[in-house]
TrEMBL record:
Coiled coil location: none
Domain Isopropylmalate dehydrogenase-like, first and last residues per copy: 5-370
Cofactor(s) required, per the database record: Mg(2+); Mn(2+)
Lineage: Bacteria, Thermotogati, Synergistota, Synergistia, Synergistales
Species for this entry: Aminivibrio pyruvatiphilus
Protein name per UniProt: 3-isopropylmalate dehydrogenase
């Protein structure tokens, strides 16, 4: 059978715990469905950084470029200043490989308790298509140094450059900071186009854009205009909803939307909200898709509050593994993983369900139970 080389960054906190279960399940799916996986393991994360000072060497990124996919747990650790590992590993990979779509399905599964009952029945099935390369994430920003109100900013960075160095200050010696957000036509078009194709595949005739042009008319007014045009090209209807109202509607009617397309920051927030509405961060899978290397990572973080306790729900990571299998072309195996997981949830005793759902099922026990159904 075929062999796939998959880069693996378990990362921090519960990352290694959930990636351990996922890896065993993907290997079992391979044995059953006639392919094998070779893991290329990378130690990047807090421990490695604190020991060596290294975050993510360019040589590793280069190597990963020739692999079939990347599986990542989560990065971020209370011992490390926020942003160092998150920007240095996660965002660097998303940007380097131009992974322009962050796909975040919010689906309900059997017996997963939902905080709000869907209005149209018991199922929830929304797909968040998050723009993944722009907005306030581009990394152009500055803050005043302590004791000085001046900021200066080297704007010649990455894909987006203003000319020269921007200098400024807050009046009266006030400390402060700023961060730039951008939207470019190609980036908006490609993610909206992706959303339209996804909606079509789901048999839907409209997508919904999370926006906020009332407060930020330049960037999100631009988004709305381009999205309108791109959706029309695909024969798709476009609903435009201010993101604050979208959050409000979602907590009252969690199954209101089919495909939600969102700029980077709103997509980050709305996808955590939808994860909560679908039963928890422990069931929310994710994929960063580009034309080159794609990365597969659950949407949750390293959850330092439960790391090492066995309470981490591995289901999000396992479903993320299923997305990985689908991406590399192993559709039958991907479906087998999702089916085994669904069967586990539907058939097991209440006490065996993950802790997140009110059971006593540890990360390991839940992983094992799903694995057994594949073999
Ligand atoms: P988080 O997603 O790690 O945790 C939020 C809450 O959800 C916590 O109470 C946690 O216990 C719970 N939770 C998350 N995953 C769970 C699971 N699988 N099972 C059961 N409960 C789960 O978000 P946070 O607390 O904001 O961030 C913690 C760290 O993770 C920070 O360093 C942050 O920067 C980082 N982070 C990384 C990623 C990533 O690598 N993709 C994503 C988000 C946050
Ligand atoms: C996510 C995370 C990241 C993001 C952080 C850790 C940089 O919250 O993957 O959702 O904001 O994209
Ligand atoms: Mn997030």
């Amino acid at each position: 059978g075929k062999n796939y080389v998959v880069a693996r960054i378990p990362g921090d906190g519960i990352g290694p715990e959930v990636i351990g279960e996922t890896s065993r399940i993907l290997e079992a799916a391979g044995r059953k469905h006639g392919f094998s996986l070779t893991w290329a393991d990378y130690p990047f994360g807090a421990d490695h950084y604190l020991k060596t000072g290294e975050i993510l060497p360019a040589s590793a990124v280069e190597e990963m470029g020739s692999m079939d996919a990347l599986l990542l747990g989560a990065v971020g650790d209370p011992r490390v200043k926020p942003g160092i590992l998150e920007r240095g590993i996660l965002l660097t990979i998303r940007f380097h490989f131009d992974q322009y779509v962050n796909l975040r399905p919010a689906k309900s599964y059997p017996r997963v308790p939902l905080p709000v009952a869907p209005k149209g029945g018991k199922d929830l099935d929304t797909l968040v298509v998050r723009e993944n390369t722009e907005d306030f994430y581009i990394g152009i920003g500055s803050r005043t140094e302590k004791g000085s109100a001046d900021f200066s900013l080297d704007t010649k960075r990455g894909l987006y450059s203003l000319e020269g160095t921007l200098r400024g200050s807050f009046s009266g010696g006030v400390e402060g900071a700023f961060q730039l957000g951008v939207a470019s036509e190609p980036a908006v078009r490609r993610v909206v186009a992706y959303g339209c194709r996804a909606a079509k595949a789901r048999g839907e005739d409209k997508i919904t854009l999370a926006s906020k042009s009332n407060a930020l008319p330049q960037i999100y007014g631009f988004w709305e205009d381009i999205a309108q045009d791109e959706a029309a090209r695909h024969g798709m209807g476009l609903g435009i909803v201010n993101v604050d109202a979208m959050c409000y509607h979602l907590v009252r009617t969690p199954d209101l939307y089919g495909v939600v397309v969102a700029p980077n920051m709103f997509g980050d927030i709305v996808s955590d909200l939808l994860a909560g509405l679908a039963g928890g961060l422990g069931v929310a899978a994710g994929a960063d898709i580009g034309d080159g290397l794609s990365m597969f990572e659950p949407i949750h973080g390293s959850a330092p509050d439960i790391a090492g306790t066995g309470k981490a729900n591995p289901i999000a990571a396992i479903l993320t593994g299923a997305l990985l299998l689908e991406h590399i072309g192993e559709r039958t195996a991907a479906k087998a993983v999702e089916d085994s997981l669904t069967a586990f949830l539907a058939e097991s005793a209440p006490g065996d369900l993950p802790v997140e759902f009110g059971g006593q099922g540890t990360t390991r026990a839940v992983g094992e139970a799903i694995l057994k159904r594949i073999q």
